[in-house]
Design a protein that fits this description.
mainly alpha; 10 helices; single chain
Length: 193
């Protein structure tokens, strides 16, 4: 009986040991950027594929999570720009088929991840975060959900630290406005009055 050692390349080791532990966080970030499961899956897979493709550019032992989030953020921006420049195409047959369908509203959500997130931080909070502009939503997610430092966020977003602080301040103020009534209904009061 001949035993052979399972040899992995240094790149496979980096991918498995440094990148894959952040897969769940990367997916969650992708989901919150895109707002739906299909696009999140696409963005997540694209980020991992680009991470593999450019793994030789990654310096082993550095902040793998920030590197992956930077790739995802850039891929999201590139896709957004592409969609803005490309008009929506609708096939005539798809339009006719859609118009002929019976209008039956769905009750509940088919997206289990959305339901899980909703119950973790509350439906109103989720809705308020999702209503923020992309720049504000991104900085809130990176700071308050993923616990990146200002320096890491600046590197991921490729903006100065002052811009990170400004966006975070403005995003939090927007959230306060959006959630004021919700907080009052839960019994919280503004002590500054």
């Amino acid at each position: 009986m001949i035993l052979t050692a399972n040899k992995t390349t240094p790149f496979e080791r980096i991918f498995d040991e440094e990148f894959m532990p952040h897969a769940d966080a990367l997916y969650n970030f992708s989901y919150h950027l895109t707002g739906n499961e299909d696009d999140a899956n696409d963005l997540f897979q694209e980020a991992l594929m680009k991470a593999w493709r450019f793994i030789d550019k990654y310096e082993a032992g550095t902040n793998a999570k920030a590197w992956l989030f930077t790739i995802a953020k850039n891929a999201f921006i590139n896709e957004y720009r592409r969609r803005v420049k490309t008009p929506n195409r609708v096939e005539l047959q798809d339009y006719i088929t859609h118009q002929d369908k019976e209008d039956t509203p769905l009750t509940g959500s088919l997206d289990m991840r959305q339901d899980m997130f909703k119950y973790l931080i509350g439906d109103e909070v989720t809705r308020a975060i999702n209503q923020l502009a992309v720049d504000f939503r991104t900085v809130i997610l990176l700071s308050d959900v993923e616990d990146f430092t200002y320096e890491e966020i600046a590197k991921i977003l490729d903006v100065p630290i002052g811009t990170v602080r400004s966006r975070l301040h403005r995003a939090r103020n927007e959230l306060k406005k959006k959630l004021k009534e919700y907080a009052e209904n839960l019994g919280y009061e503004d002590k500054r009055k």
